[in-house]
Design brief:
alpha+beta, Uridine Diphospho-n-acetylenolpyruvylglucosamine Reductase, domain 2, Uridine Diphospho-n-acetylenolpyruvylglucosamine Reductase, domain 3, five-stranded antiparallel beta sheet, four-stranded mixed beta sheet, globular, binds flavin-adenine dinucleotide
Length: about 290
């Protein structure tokens, strides 16, 4: 079950990419789809300590929270590829086994829905794992570190460039904004801005910064160039970092708002604990 759509990838590159991919597929000696070893009644695989009855009840509740955007991982595992990234499992397991397999995938559509999903996970004691686009394939892609986790595919519905500011040269993005999308948004706006990218443009700008990824220009330290985060904490509360923590720090950017202008704010600087950590789910991020 790979995604049938290619999030964050513009139409101008998909035809060419698909034609190249087809050449590889035509010569492939190994199927990219793996049948499940488990009996149908044992699918989806559940996280340790969660009964099937509880899981099923929890999923009914989850569907209501995220407007029905829930998919169970109970089908054969399709490795997909970079454009149609697998959101179900690790397509490149080191030991060849299907250990890193999710139980379900949900796609929240707002920060409020992410908060509700976190509270849902606490209530049912079900592990969750967030991705932005899940294209860091060499590091496990969209597969959670705990077998049977529910994946939060943030990028699927939360994919807006909220602000593109030419005067102060920053943007405020949601998890599903890829480098391609940000580039296209800048071109469309006609603003005199440019971006730093890693090797491939289909990853998330936010996901890459949270992974402490690197690009090629003097702005290549992507976490170093972030400015302000909105984070859903493990108890479901929302925290904004830097100047975003101050009163009047709404995303409408009133005159008093300096959320994307000064990274450090006042007092302790907590942003780093949300990188390579999964200590919180980042729902908005500013980038310089
Ligand atoms: C062939 C190839 C070449 C690449 N070259 C480069 C390169 O040159 N430089 C480079 O830096 N990268 C490189 N990458 C990595 C790629 O750029 C990243 O995959 C991408 O930018 C990160 O975004 P993502 O959406 O894929 O991250 P994801 O896979 O979604 O997430 C990465 C990690 O961050 C966590 N995370 C993601 N979003 C959130 C969130 N909103 N809140 C909390 N935690 C979150 C995830 O749990 C995961 O652990 C390459 C990847 C490939 C496949």
């Amino acid at each position: 079950m790979a995604d049938l759509y290619a999030p964050g990838i513009p139409a101008r590159v998909t035809d060419y990419a698909n034609s190249v991919k087809k050449k590889f597929e035509d010569n492939a000696t190994k199927s990219h789809v793996r049948e499940r070893k488990e009996a149908p009644g044992d699918l989806p695989v559940l996280p340790s300590g969660v009964s099937r009855a509880n899981f099923n009840s929890a999923i009914v509740e989850l569907r209501k929270i995220v407007d029905g955007h829930v998919q169970l991982v109970d089908q054969p595992l399709d490795d997909g590829w970079y454009l149609h990234r697998p959101v179900t499992h690790d397509a490149f397991p080191l030991d060849g086994e299907d250990y890193f397999v999710n139980s379900a995938v949900c796609a929240p559509g707002s920060t409020e829905q992410v908060q509700a999903v976190v509270q849902w996970a606490n209530k049912w004691l079900i592990p969750i794992y967030p991705i932005s686009m899940g294209r860091n394939l060499g590091y496990g892609g969209a597969a959670a570190r705990v077998k049977g986790s529910v994946l939060l595919d943030l990028g699927k519905r939360m994919d807006k460039v909220i602000e593109l500011n030419e005067k102060s040269a920053f943007c405020l993005v949601e998890p599903g904004v890829s480098y391609y999308m940000l580039f296209d948004e800048i071109r469309k706006s006609g603003k005199d801005l440019w971006i730093d990218v890693p090797d491939l443009g289909g990853g998330s700008v936010m996901g890459n910064a949270l992974d402490r990824g690197v690009g090629y220009t003097p702005y290549g330290d992507h976490f170093g160039m972030h400015c302000g985060m909105e984070v859903v904490l493990p108890n479901g509360e929302v925290m904004r970092t830097g100047m975003g923590a101050l009163p009047d720090s709404n995303t409408a950017h009133g005159s008093a708002n300096t959320w994307q202008l000064f990274q450090y704010g006042f007092g302790p600087y907590p942003d780093g604990i949300f990188t390579q950590s999964n200590y919180g789910i980042v729902t908005k991020m500013g980038c310089e």
